[in-house]
Structures are given as C-alpha cells and as structure tokens.
Amino acid sequence: MLRPALSIGLVSATVLLGGMALTGSASAEPGAAPAQSQAARYPADSLRALGDRVGLRIGTAVNTDELGSNADYTRITAEQFSSVTPENVMKWQLVEPTRGTYDWAAADRLVAFAKKNKQLVRGHTLVWHSQLPTWLSSDGYTTTLSNDELKALLKKHIQDQVKHFKGDIWQWDVVNEAFDDDGQPRQTIWYKAWGGLGYIADAFRWAHEADPKALLFYNDYNLEFTGVKSNAVYDLVRSLKAQRVPIDGVGFQGHLDTQYGFPDLQNNLQRFADLGLKVAETEVDVRTFTQAPPNENTPTNPLAGYAQESYWSRALKACLAVRECISFTPWGFGDTYSWIPGWFDNPQEGAALLYDGNLQPKSQYYVLQQDLALAAGAPHRSGPGAGHN
Ligand code: 9MR
C-alpha cells in the first residue's frame, strides 16, 4: 500500500457573498448568553445554512485555544458550522492528566459555545491508543497496569465522561482507530487486556448505559478506500450489529492526499449504511506537497489547487449522495492550525484546509459552498440533527 500509515503518536473573513441575506447577525462570544436564550446568527450563504437545506450538518474540529481568544477564528466557527468536534480537549490525556482528577474546563467551554450557537457536538474520543495520560500508558501499546485494572479504568473513564456530557453530545466517537492499515487489530493496551476485540462491544455498551440518546460511532481513517482495512472494520461493525451492540454509526475520517487516487468513498459510505448504520465524514482534509517552512501552506505544484478542489468536492458529494451520511466535518478550517505540516514534514505537506493561514477562504471553500447551494435534489437526512440548525 502506497499510502503512509497514519499511525498516531503522542502529542506532543468575512465570507459573505455579495450582500446575501443574513438569518441574523453574528455574535460569537462564548458563554455570553444562556444557552438557547437567543437565536444563533449566521449568514444564509454559510456552509451551515446551505447544508441545513438537506439536513446535513457541516462541522469543524475546534482548537479551543483559539476559540474566544481569536476573534476571526471564533466568528468563523460560529457562522460557518452547525456541528463542532473538540480537536483535542475531550481526549483522555487532556481530561484526566492526573489519575483520579478530571479537568473538563476546556471541553465544557466548547459545549457552552455550541449551545449558544445552535451547534451540535461530536464527542471525540473515548477509546484510543493515542493521547493517553502517561500514568496509563506512554505509547498506547505498553503499560505497567494489570489487565483487571485496565478494564476497570476503561469502564470508569467511559461512564464518567459520557455522564459528564450527558444530553450535550450528538455523536460520540466511542472507539477510534482500532485497526492497523493491514486490516489487523491494532495491538493496543485495550486489545491486550481483553485478549481480543471484546473491549469494543463493552465500550459501546458502557457508553450507551451512560447516555442512551447519544449516537455512538466507530471512527477510523482509510475506510474511504475499499481494501483490507475497510473490509475488516465492515466485518467488525456487522458483527456488532448482529450481537445487538448499541452502535449507531461509522465515522470516515477522510484524511485525503492529492498524491493518491481519490477513494471510492461513496460506495464505502453506502455499504456501511446498508448495514443499518449512520455514516459521517468526520475529519476531512486534503493535503498536498508544499514548500518548506515558513511557506508550508503554499503548494509546490501550482496545479495542486485544482486537485484539492476536486477532492473536497467529491468528498462532500459522496456524503450528499448517501442519505445516511449525517455530517461532513473538516478537521479544522485554517491551514495555520492544521496538524498536517507538523506531522508530514519530510517531504513537507499541508495546505489541507478550506481557509488559508490568514483565515481567508480558499477556492476549496467556494467549491463546497457552490456544491451545497446546488444540492437541493440530494436526499434529505433524517433523525436527530437533521432539523433546522
Ligand atoms: O489534530 C490532532 C492533533 O492536534 C494532535 O496532536 C494529534 C495527536 O495524535 O491528533 C490530531 O487529531 C487526530 C484525531 O484525534 C484522530 N484521527 C487523526 C487526527 C490527526 O492526527
């Protein structure tokens, strides 16, 4: 397989077009008004307003360091998107850095912001091998804790976190990235503690007990491509459904790269949906080769932008064409805040998002705006989240 493994290590404009009508006027201060007390305000030509016409939530990953402190960032988050995903602040490393002491502050602020701006929240993520607190595991694959301790800890983590946010989360990424690129179960501390994939069913059951109304998702990358990994996840979720495990959906992360062919995404979304599941594109970005820093947001090939426009458009249209695809979420919206330049730096890649380093919309943004404006014939979504946002 030519695509590099996207294995994850530890952490380390106004866009109004030509005076179109507003559904309201913008106010993006987090926490300034009680939730629901005033209508959220956003432009009629925003991605969120256009997606609303077919019941499709357009989301973004949010960097909570910028939210509230960066006025443009905050305004765009509120105006353009009808769903938000915390890029990092609901991960275990962030919510329980010290064993037994929770810190929900940043995630709570995002949830308050979302309520104020009539956005739904994708909770990300409960069970992962990456971004674990060091007291639990420093690499996700080894730990000094016993299997029994790990089982008790995972149950407590899931139940405490899901209960803390009960009623506030639309979709939870319950389990993230449980398979390797070769379609084998990833040998994480969870896999080893259970002696197999049994932790996944337990995780969904525990999450469902804690918040029966939240939609529960399995989330992974490269599911977009038909192949051993996508097939392995397909077999897993089919078997979970057969066992009546409370799984509602599958998230296709959608970290795309112009050096690879565009995946058969629509077919893959549809075959998972045909199992009786919701599907979503949860972390979309389209990276390309770029110049060295400080120009890491500038493609080396002047034609790269055309491929990026095409990939963004096709990724969105794949979702639009599948009625069960309930949300389309880019992984952030300003190239400066993207994880990509720091991760793929030899050779350098980047320029993967809809807005440039100065938070100005790129041509990719306008392509999505036009696709949504022309999407009136696409099937309307149904279920929670498909109503007016
Ligand atoms: O964007 C996230 C970045 O800020 C973190 O440093 C990184 C740590 O692994 O995680 C990034 O988000 C990942 C997401 O949680 C799961 N899928 C892959 C994403 C990109 O690495």
TrEMBL record:
Protein's recorded name: Beta-xylanase
Entry keywords, A to Z: Carbohydrate metabolism, Glycosidase, Hydrolase, Polysaccharide degradation, Signal, Xylan degradation
SUPFAM superfamilies hit by this protein: (Trans)glycosidases
Signal peptide: 1-28
Catalytic activities: Endohydrolysis of (1->4)-beta-D-xylosidic linkages in xylans
Start and end residues of each GH10 domain: 44-371
Organism: Microbispora siamensis
Keyword Oxidoreductase set for record: no
Family label: Belongs to the glycosyl hydrolase 10 (cellulase F) family.
Upper taxonomic lineage: Bacteria, Bacillati, Actinomycetota, Actinomycetes, Streptosporangiales
Gene responsible for this protein: xynA_2
